[in-house]
Structure formats: structure tokens, C-alpha cells
Design brief:
Number of domains: 5
Structural class: alpha/beta
Distance between the termini: 72 Å
CATH superfamily of the largest domain: inorganic pyrophosphatase (n-terminal core)
Largest sheet: 6 strands, mixed
Shape: elongated
CATH architecture of the largest domain: Alpha-Beta Complex
CATH topology of the largest domain: inorganic pyrophosphatase (n-terminal core)
Length: 667
């Protein structure tokens, strides 16, 4: 705009220059006349001649210049029209109703080739809606398809809202996008394959056949990837590394990583089926980053119990498999190593803050009490962070209030934040997800974090833990802490009340030793029993109220059997002190019905819908709850839904069950 104004000023000045000598000659004649009349007459005659000549030049020149400008403008306009019409780029004008008001020859040819006769722009590109066009500021690009060709559609808006018109340019990027996709599909992804239970499987058969089993496993894995032009190398007896093009990754996903099931079919007399875990790193900026993603994916796969594949990239994490139960490790080497590492860490600190998850349950409380006893035995200050309690854990907590226990055994999050410094360590028990811990601000502020948990890890697990001990085959956090107590020091002596709390955590989480109870579970229970745990005393503490029994009976009575194998029900919350606990107990009881593979109980409480999912061994309810934003263990999991009604929550559960059944994720 400034350049146009400058050009107009220059042209106006150029047109007026003849008036300058005319004015100068008149002024000179006037001055001469004042000095000498005769000379003034001569000067006046000369000035008149100059003025007449300049006037002629101005009028004649102006007419010719205007005529030339008009001619140039007409020619330029015609040239611009021809250029627009003959432009190789498809080009069209669209009004604010989306109607095509003009299109150049290339656009007409393109439309004719596609055998279309569009009146509206949305007839060509329905994905570019009129609302999106009206929201354009000045210019915006869209990527759209027209039959088999791909275009980058640049739309420029001109005019006001009342007379708005859009100019649409179509740039064919079919070849470019095809080349980009081909290049992307040829990118390499890194992967790891680990045998989950190699040692245990080998021990389950005689020595003569062990080498044959190892050879068959190796052959199965190598042959599977040979069909994908992969590079695969055996790192150790139970570990493999492979590199494959990204285009084959889609095949693996479509087949739901059937290698997991193929390896399980290998049987030459081994009593235990071999399972594998696969970790794949994709989308890294460098191949080194892809390899790091693969390592992190493998950690997630193993942390979730193995027998599954995990794909990790910059944007998301995908899980496949996970149908088998975690195999219990009979050796306690890992527990001993973690216990010694925990002791070394505590020795360098002055204070411990121990916390579990929100809505504290007896397993989290028992584990926290066990860690507190370890800290006290090592002459360290320790506190259990509890923001709120419910009636299910109140009887057990009351045993630790007053008497021989300090008043600051249980503190709030705010109190913990005031005391937190560089010499403190935060110990998280019975959860590995930062979003559901009792004191999230404390976790964020802490520089040293320890995680002890038995739940399968998810993508949002605690990342900054200096020491992480997650055993998915463990029945409960109390079982893990019981083993740590035995190995961390000979000076730890737990009292009867503390043994009761830890024993109660095992009993509740195993549903009276009916769920996820292994050899080490009973060994932990025996250790606690030797230290004063009383079965009768624990049973009395957890007797149910009549209102809870009625609520469970009503929920069981109203249970819906969906797809023959899944029990879905809603537990009433009115009049109950701990409705979510009752809902979880109802889910456990529903599994006692013949033919039920999994149970899901909804409880409406505190403005949310709490889901409790349980199974025995046929359904991975952790995967089910993860699809609803929750998580947990393979046979025990849960989720929380907000902004939905109970009926809407039930429908979402049904949709997840339908999806998992169709994809074969339910055994």
C-alpha cells in the first residue's frame, strides 16, 4: 500500500512539473516590471509565452499519459486473466456458501477427468467443511484426497463477512506423499525378544532335552523374522535383538504378535510353557533412540508380567498379548538384592515418608507399616502420609494411634511437605502410578523416590524412582515387604500389631488365599504368623456390617450376564461407609458363579463411577480397565469414570468387552 501511494505521488509530481517554469517566469516578469516598466513588458511577454507553452505540454502530455496508462492497465488485466485461466495449478473461486463461482481451465480439466460436475466445493472435498473455511483467518492449507490423488489445498480468504470469497489452489502432492510413505516404511525399527521363564522351563525337563528345547525356540523366533527380511542376533541364551523395516511392523500388529502364541506351542516334554516378551522402539529421531525406546518397551512388558509385546514411540505406547499369568519365581535372589539396595539407600537418609494410593486399603497400610518398622529399626525418622481414611481400614489404623506408637506416625500431605528436604526419601507402596498416589505434590517435590508394588506397570508409571521393585507375580505389597523385612537386616523385629496388618493385607488381596497365592505367599504368611499375627484377631477386625452384606446381595441379585461369561452389576452406595470396598468384594463373590470368566461391578460414589474388575485366570482385566483409563493387575483391576451415568458406564464396559472379544484378547 505504501509503495502504491509513493508511485501515485511520483506520477502526480511528474505531471505537474511544467507548471513550475511557468510560475517562475511570471514571478520574474513581476520583479522586472517593478524595476523597469519597458523591461517588464518584455519579460511579461516572455513569461506569457513560457506559460502558454507549459500549459500546452501539461494538457497534451496528461492526455497521452492517461491514455497510455489506461491501455497498459487493460493489457495487464487481460494478461492476468489469461495467466489465471491458463495457470497449471487448479484454481477456483468459492463464495461464502461454498458454491464454485469460477474455475480455471486446469481445474475444469481435473474435474472432467474425475467425471464430476460439482456445484459446491464440498462436493469435491467433503472433508473441508464450510465451517472450517469460514474460520480461516487469511490463508490455510488442508490435505485432502480426490479419488486416488492427494492434494494440498490452499484456501485464501478475501473480502468482508457479507461478501466473502475464497480462492482455492490445488497442489498435487500424490507423488510426494507416496515417496514420503515409502521412505517412512523403509525406516528401521529396533526390537528385543526376551524369554520370560527360560530357567524355569529348562528346570522342568530332563537335561538331555534342554538343548533341543533351546534349539527349537531359537529356530521358531529366527524363522518368524526371516520372512520380514529382519536382522536378528542372539545376545544371550534368553535374549534376542532384531532390526526390521517399519512396513513389517504393521504386519506384526495385524497378526497381534502371534509369535507370542507360537512359542507357547513348543513342547518336547517341558512341563512349563515357554513365554516371551517383545519390546519394539519406533519413531526415534536416530536409531540409537529407537534402541532406547525398545529397551523401555521391554521394561514395560516385563513390568506388566511378560508374555506380551509393547511398541513405544514418541507419541504413544501400544500393548499386545498379556494373556498368561505371571509365573512365580521360586528364587528370592531379586528380593534379597532389592532389600540390600533399599538398606543402602536408607542409610544415607535421615527421614522416610511412606504413602500408598488414594482410598487407602489394608494392603497399602500393612506395607507402609512394614516399611515404617524397617526405618525405625535403622534409627530413622519415618511417617506414613494419609490424607483420608475409610471405615474398612479404620479399625486397623486405630491400633497404631497412641500407646507405644508415636503421634506423628500418620501425617497429612501438607505436614510432609513442610518437613521434606534433601535428606528425606519418599517410599511409594502398592501403586506405581503417580496419578493415584496419596500425596502427588510430595511425589513431585521429592528428590529420592522408592517404589514397591505388585501391580502391572502402565505407560504413566513413576519415572523418577531411584529404586523400583515391581513384582507382578506377588500377591500383594505386604508379601513383598515381608520378604524385604527378612533380608534387609537381622535387627528388624516386627510386633504383633504390625504382623496383623501385613497378614491382613495378604488375606484381603488374595481373597483368603484364593487369588494369586503362590508358594512365596504362604511363606510370607508363615513368617508373619511366627511374628505374632493372629488369624482370629484379623478375621474379627474385618467382619462385615449387615448393610454391606445386604448391598452385596442386592448387587449379585441384579447382576447382568453379558456374552454368557461376564457378570456386570452395580453396587448400591447409600448407607455404606465404604461403598467402593463393598463393590470390590461383590466382584470377588460374582466369580464364584459357574461359567463366569470376569466380573465388573460399578459403584457410584463421590461424583464418580468406580469400576472393580476381577477374573480368575481366563481374562486379563488389567487390559480391560486400561481401555477405560484405569489399570491394576491381570486378575484384579479397576478404573474411575467421571461425567457419565451408571448406565453409560455399563455401556462402555460392554463396548470394551465386545472389542476385546472381536480382537481375540479374551482367552
Amino acid at each position: 500500500m505504501k509503495k502504491e501511494k509513493k508511485a501515485q505521488e511520483l506520477l502526480r509530481t511528474y505531471m505537474r512539473w511544467p507548471l513550475i517554469p511557468a510560475g517562475a517566469s511570471v514571478a520574474a516578469a513581476f520583479c522586472v516590471t517593478c524595476a523597469d516598466r519597458k523591461a517588464g513588458l518584455i519579460a511579461a511577454a516572455f513569461a506569457l509565452f513560457i506559460t502558454a507553452f507549459c500549459a500546452h505540454l501539461y494538457l497534451a502530455g496528461r492526455k497521452n499519459i492517461v491514455k497510455a496508462l489506461v491501455g497498459w492497465s487493460v493489457a495487464a488485466d487481460e494478461l492476468q486473466k489469461r495467466l489465471s485461466d491458463d495457470l497449471d495449478v487448479p484454481y477456483a473461486f468459492v463464495d461464502r456458501q461454498g458454491i464454485i463461482v469460477w474455475q480455471n481451465k486446469t481445474m475444469k480439466t481435473l474435474v472432467r477427468e474425475k467425471k464430476k460436475n460439482p456445484k459446491r466445493f464440498q462436493d469435491l472435498f467433503p472433508q473441508i467443511t464450510l465451517d472450517e473455511m469460514n474460520r480461516i483467518g487469511e490463508t490455510e492449507d488442508f490435505h485432502a484426497e480426490l479419488d486416488s490423488r492427494r492434494f494440498r489445498v490452499r484456501i485464501t480468504r478475501t473480502g468482508e463477512a457479507t461478501d466473502r470469497i475464497f480462492a482455492a489452489y490445488l497442489y498435487d502432492e500424490t507423488e510426494l506423499r507416496t515417496l514420503q510413505e515409502e521412505n517412512a516404511s523403509m525406516r528401521l525399527v529396533a526390537g528385543l525378544v526376551y524369554l520370560d521363564n527360560y530357567e524355569e522351563a529348562m528346570e522342568s525337563m530332563d537335561e538331555v532335552r534342554r538343548s533341543l528345547l533351546a534349539a527349537m525356540i531359537d529356530r521358531k523366533i529366527v524363522r518368524y523374522f526371516d520372512g520380514m527380511d529382519a536382522i536378528i542376533r542372539k545376545l544371550e541364551k534368553d535374549k534376542y535383538f532384531f532390526v526390521v523395516e517399519r512396513k513389517h511392523l504393521k504386519t506384526l500388529e495385524e497378526n497381534h504378535f502371534d509369535l507370542l502364541e507360537q512359542v507357547k506351542t513348543i513342547s518336547i516334554g517341558n512341563e512349563m510353557r515357554v513365554t516371551i516378551s517383545v519390546g519394539i522402539g519406533d519413531g526415534g529421531e536416530t536409531y540409537v533412540q529407537c534402541a532406547e525406546f525398545a529397551r523401555q518397551a521391554m521394561e514395560l512388558a516385563l513390568g506388566r508380567g511378560g508374555d506380551q509385546a509393547v511398541i513405544k514411540n514418541n507419541e504413544s505406547i501400544q500393548y499386545y498379548g498379556g494373556k498368561s499369568n505371571s509365573k512365580e519365581k521360586t528364587t528370592r535372589v531379586k528380593a534379597r538384592v532389592k532389600a540390600h539396595a533399599f538398606r543402602e539407600l536408607i542409610e544415607t537418609k535421615d527421614r522416610l515418608f511412606i504413602m500408598g494410593h488414594r482410598l487407602l486399603d489394608i494392603d497399602a497400610l500393612g506395607a507402609a507399616i512394614g516399611i515404617w518398622r524397617i526405618a525405625v529399626s535403622m534409627n530413622k525418622k519415618a511417617h506414613i502420609v494419609v490424607s483420608s481414611t475409610n471405615s474398612s481400614v479404620a479399625p486397623m489404623m486405630n491400633r497404631f494411634r497412641g500407646g507405644e506408637y508415636p503421634e506423628d506416625l500418620f501425617i497429612s500431605e501438607d505436614q510432609a511437605l513442610e518437613m521434606l528436604d534433601d535428606t528425606a526419601v519418599v517410599v511409594v507402596v502398592d501403586t506405581n502410578r503417580p496419578s493415584i498416589v496419596e500425596a502427588p505434590k510430595l511425589l513431585e517435590a521429592a528428590k529420592t523416590v522408592v517404589v514397591l508394588d505388585h501391580h502391572r506397570q502402565s505407560s504413566d508409571s513413576i519415572k523418577n524412582a531411584q529404586l523400583s521393585y515391581v513384582e507382578t507375580f506377588a500377591s500383594s505389597a505386604c508379601e513383598m515387604v515381608s520378604e524385604i523385612v527378612q533380608y534387609i537386616s537381622d535387627n528388624v523385629r516386627i510386633r504383633a500389631a504390625e504382623a496383623d496388618a501385613m497378614y491382613a493385607g495378604i488375606v484381603i488381596d488374595t481373597h483368603n488365599f484364593q487369588n494369586q497365592a503362590g508358594v512365596r505367599t504362604f511363606e510370607a504368611a508363615a513368617f508373619l504368623r511366627r511374628n505374632g499375627a493372629d488369624v482370629t484377631r484379623v478375621r474379627k477386625l474385618f467382619r462385615e456390617k449387615i448393610e454391606d452384606c445386604r448391598a452385596k446381595a442386592e448387587a449379585i441379585h441384579n447382576a447382568e450376564i453379558y456374552r454368557q461369561y461376564f457378570a456386570i452389576s452395580q453396587c448400591p452406595a447409600e448407607g455404606l461407609d465404604s461403598p467402593t470396598i463393598v463393590g470390590a468384594q461383590t466382584a470377588n463373590d460374582l466369580l464364584d458363579i459357574v461359567g463366569i470368566k470376569a466380573s465388573i461391578v460399578l459403584t457410584e460414589y463421590d461424583g464418580k463411577i468406580f469400576l472393580s474388575a476381577r477374573s480368575i485366570d481366563e481374562v486379563n482385566v488389567q487390559v480391560m480397565m486400561e481401555k477405560l483409563g484405569g489399570g491394576g493387575h491381570r486378575t484384579i483391576a479397576g478404573a474411575q469414570l467421571t461425567g457419565v451415568t451408571a448406565e453409560e458406564a455399563k455401556q462402555r464396559v460392554r463396548e470394551v468387552l465386545d472389542e476385546m472379544t472381536e480382537k481375540g484378547e479374551i482367552a
